[in-house]
């Protein structure tokens, strides 16, 4: 896997989502968003859950009020 971007590979496999916060200046998120759209469409990894999928951010927000 030398020379491959592990973050991008995880998104392509449906094992991670694109970070929703601010990206560093001049950082191109387009390949990441494209990979996520493709993984969602193919229902790879966590995207097989469809509407049942809950992002980590949403999960933390819901648990905070407990």
Notes on the structure:
The protein starts with 5 loop residues before the first helix and ends with a helix. The longest helix has 12 residues, at 30-41. The protein has helices spanning 6-12, 30-41, 56-64. It has one domain (6-64). The model has no long low-confidence stretch (mean pLDDT 93). The chain is an all-alpha fold and 66 residues long. Helices cover 42% and strands 0% of the residues. It is built from three helices and no strands. It is globular and about 45 Å long.
Report the total helices: 3
Order of helices and strands: HHH
Largest sheet: none
First CA to last CA: what distance? 42 Å
**Low-confidence regions:** none
Helix content: 40-55%
What is the SS-derived class? mainly alpha
Q: List the domain count as a whole number.
A: 1
Give a quick rundown of the structure.
42% of the residues lie in helices and 0% in strands. The chain is an all-alpha fold and 66 residues long.
Note the topology:
Layout (H helix, E strand, L loop, with lengths): L5 H7 L17 H12 L14 H9 L2
């Amino acid at each position: 896997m030398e020379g491959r971007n592990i973050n991008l590979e995880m998104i392509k496999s449906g094992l991670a989502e694109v970070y929703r916060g601010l990206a560093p200046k001049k950082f191109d998120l387009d390949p990441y968003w494209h990979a996520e759209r493709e993984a969602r469409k193919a229902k790879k990894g966590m995207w097989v859950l469809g509407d049942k999928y809950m992002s980590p951010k949403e999960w933390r927000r819901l648990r905070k009020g407990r």
